[in-house]
Write a structure and sequence with these properties.
The protein is built from ten helices and ten strands. By secondary structure, it is an alpha/beta fold. The protein has a single domain, classed as 3-Layer(aba) Sandwich (Rossmann fold), CATH 3.40.50. Helix 3 packs parallel to helix 6 and helix 4 runs antiparallel to helix 6. The longest helix has 16 residues. The two termini are 31 Å apart.
């Protein structure tokens, strides 16, 4: 579904990615792991068209070069950004409905609401609350739900556990597995490395903007030398 070949990118004047080549197959959960500052967020922004890149990025065989971010989203790439980036003074319902904005004119654009409420029942209970009044975990659920409203075929999540109590982290990562089971491919950047590798099929280890290892997630999780050398574990 997604192919990156020899991709380089700069962010805030610094070279953040160098020679990145990776693939995400349809129906997979692929994790990108590494220490803070390794370039993980920039990698997702490169795919989403939010930073200038060199090299090749293909989605379903079509190049994303020069495609603006809103058109990449319409092609089926959804991004849940680091820090969630909700509309804090709008209600839960308004944030979700805004996720379907790109589908305006489609009479079924709000159909994903049912799926969102199945995954995150708390959101159905808080429709009239402003987003800023939610807990950190509930805000992350809302950010994921908003991305699902775009009806993505590839869902990219940037640090979904950040700033969330452990119990809700487990709930959110379990929801990510269910999202994959419903037919949405997932590319996951996550600071909780053990949990990410538990739900992923494959993983790439990123260090200072380069991929230093790739393979089955269970193999990377079991390799103590790799964990110490590249993941600080």
């Amino acid at each position: 579904m997604l192919t990156m070949q020899d991709v380089a990118a700069s962010y805030r004047g610094l070279k953040a990615l160098q020679g990145i080549s990776l693939e995400v197959g349809r129906g997979e959960i692929v994790a990108v792991v590494g220490a803070n500052g390794a370039g993980k967020s920039t990698l997702l922004k490169a795919i989403a068209g939010q930073v200038a890149t060199e090299g090749t990025i293909l989605f379903d065989g079509a190049s994303l070069a020069g495609v603006p971010p809103h058109m990449i989203a319409r092609r089926g790439v959804g991004l849940v950004p680091e820090g969630r980036k909700l509309f804090p003074r709008l209600t839960v319902e308004d944030n979700l409905r805004l996720g379907a904005y790109a589908k305006r004119g489609d009479p079924n654009r709000f159909a994903p609401l049912e799926l969102v409420f199945q995954l995150f029942p708390r959101l159905a209970e808080r429709l009239s609350q402003r987003a800023e009044t939610l807990s950190g975990g509930e805000q992350q659920m809302l950010a994921i739900g908003r991305a699902l409203m775009t009806q993505p075929r590839l869902l990219m999540l940037d640090e979904p556990s950040q700033g969330i109590m452990p119990k809700l982290v487990d709930d959110i990562l379990a929801a990510v597995s269910r999202i994959r089971d419903l037919g949405v491919t997932v590319l996951l950047v996550e600071q909780r490395l053990v949990e990410a590798l538990e739900i992923a099929d494959r993983a790439y280890v990123l260090q200072t903007g380069r991929i230093v290892m790739q393979g089955a997630a269970k193999d990377i999780a079991a390799d103590g030398a790799v964990r110490r050398a590249y993941l600080g574990m």
